[in-house]
Amino acid sequence: MRAPLGDFDDAAPALDRLDRLVAPVANAVRTWRGDVPADQLIHVDTDPEIADTAVFVEHYGPELLDASANCVVVAAKRGGETSLAACVVLSRTRVDVNGAVRKHLGARKASFAPMDMATGETGMEYGGITPIGLPAGWPVLVDPAVADTEWVLIGSGSRRGKLIVPGKALAGLPGAVVLDGLGN
Prior knowledge:
CATH superfamily: YbaK/aminoacyl-tRNA synthetase-associated domain
Structural class: alpha+beta
Order of helices and strands: EHEHEEHEHEHEEHE
Number of helices: 6
Oligomer: single chain
Distance between the termini: 35 Å
CATH architecture: Alpha-Beta Complex
Strand content: 25-35%
Radius of gyration: 15 Å
Largest sheet: 5 strands, mixed
Strand order of the largest sheet: 5-3-4-6-9
CATH topology: YbaK protein
Shape: globular
CATH class: Alpha Beta
């Protein structure tokens, strides 16, 4: 199979690669429900040593720069309680944690979750966190630019491999809200 973007030697429907996905992502793909069919979720095998965006794009194709998205975990605090949310923005933008995210979550304070918290709560590797397979009930904030991108390259839950999915699939995830101003 040829991936819809990038120059990858090894691409296949994610349903055929469940053994290469971390448990929460494999379960989400296996039980996929949404407007986008599960066979449109593509897994590409990648070298974990070049997982960071700049080097990744140089190796796998410059068109990936405009189609790559990051999923970051944010810890929101209010009244002594901490809740977690995921934010998905194109890799060339930053998450507006102290503005759009804090306001949307009704938090007094919001910040990027510490690495051990993000990986522990998601069951995913740092640098590979994806919005597919997050814990039930988490808000998934998606920048409109991500939702409007035909094909988006995101993490697969580990640093080895990526997922390529239609942007509208991310906007249709459980708990997803397309939030204006999320990325800047």
